[in-house]
Amino acid sequence: MLFLAITAFLFANATTLAFADAKSDYDYQLGKYRQSYGEYMVIKNDYLSNQTLDNQQKAMLAAKQSIQNRDLAKAAFAQYLSEMILEKKAPYEPVAPVLVRLEEAKNFYLTSAQKGKEVITPADLKVFTEDYVLTTDRHDKALKYGIVSNKLVQMVRFQLENDNALNIIRPKLPASQSVPLKGRIEELTALGVQINTLIDKFSTKILPEDEDELLTGATYFSEKIELLNNIRTLQVNWIDKLIDVDINYVQPKN
Amino acid sequence: MFSPKIEINNPQALELIEKIKSGELFLPIKNFFIRFKWIFISVGVFIVLLIAFSIGKSIFQQNPDDLFIPPEIENVQLSPTKTIKSDFDALRTNIKTYNTELPDPIMPPVDNKIDLEETIIY
Question: Which chain A positions have a beta carbon within 8 Å of B82's beta carbon?
Fold first, then answer.
């Protein structure tokens, strides 16, 4: 019996633990990248001011280390975003493609980190970086989609919790409902549908139709903030109405 | 009745007596008072005001007004306001305080162009 309880507890907390691990792994990898990038900048400047073979070799090693740490940090970030989305336990179909893209991005960064080790000469490094700048764009965008999806999934989570709250209240309501109470329940249902529609509308904006169009971070994010705020305002409005029903119709009965 | 007759023969004394009689001796004092008459008048007015003020104050202190004490008001007992709580207050707080700012978390600030080329800043 105890064994079963422990197993159930571990299983229930597995996602949360994975999320915590992903966060600490990302922090660790980003810290390593920052350190190696600082060293790379110093050594590169030394090499550019005094281009000896020895300095070139040192600069190559520092650049390779930075590349490896950068891509490991990005891979950890992609994993962290995926875990954050899954941790909310709010399965939402439109986010599934974003999770796929995050997985692709993670694999790309891990492969790139491996490829970075194989760079030997400055010419190899130049080719590698030129290729990387072209190919990483698609995967860097996936990270942006992941950031927005994480917020959206939280909104879906709130919707599920709101729905659950209404289901808790329903059996406690008087059997013969008065006209005002019926009106309030209908309002809650209608507002819930409105919020769901808004969430669906938001989800269509996560992945742009034409990904090649200029997608600067500031523009992409700023247009989403207003929509998120609208959804949140409606959700607060919804829960206010539910609390009103709870206080005026459920609690006086008890 | 014996009344001694004093004869003054000293020319200096005679001159002084003459000056007193004609008023010549008091002329500088008179001029001094005329010259600073406004100062003397002002000081005089000020002294009169001070005296009037002190007299008024002493009269006021001798007859203090009766102290007004308002009647006691009954202690008003506020009826305790019952704070009605709902089981869903926590959910409401979670929604209301949820951070909708983006990007959150922020993108890792990394350099995609790591090479040994000279960086040209435009």
Answer: none
In angstroms, what separates the C-alpha of A115 from chain B's closest C-alpha? 14
**Residue A108 contacts by C-beta under 8 Å, 6 or more apart in sequence?**
A135, A136, A139
Q: Is B84 contained in some domain?
A: no
Give the predicted TM-score (pTM) of the model.
0.73
B97 in contact with A at a CB cutoff of 8 Å? no
Chosen from A195, A239, A251 to mutate, greatest number of chain B CBs within 10 A = A239
- Chain B environment of A63 (Cβ under 8 Å): 114-116
Whether B28 is in a domain gets the answer: yes
Q: How many structural domains is chain B composed of?
A: 1
Nearest to A99 by CA among A150, A156, A158: A150
B3's tokens: 């009344």
Is B21 inside a domain boundary?
Answer: yes
Tens-digit pLDDT profile for residues A151-177: 999 999 999 999 999 999 999 988 888
Residue A205 CB neighbours (<10 A) = 14
Q: Amino acid letter at A65? A: Q
ipTM: 0.84
Q: Which of residues 177-236 of A touch B (CB under 8 A)?
A: 217, 221-222, 224-225, 228-229, 232, 235-236
Distance CA A154, CA A161 (A): 10
Domain encompassing residue B38: 11-62
Confirm whether B73 is domain-assigned: no
pLDDT (tens digit per residue) in A64-116: 999 999 999 999 999 999 999 999 999 999 999 999 999 999 999 999 999 99
The domains found in chain A, sorted by start residue, are 8-144 (no CATH), 145-249 (1.20.58)
From B94, which residue of chain A is nearest by alpha-carbon distance?
A158
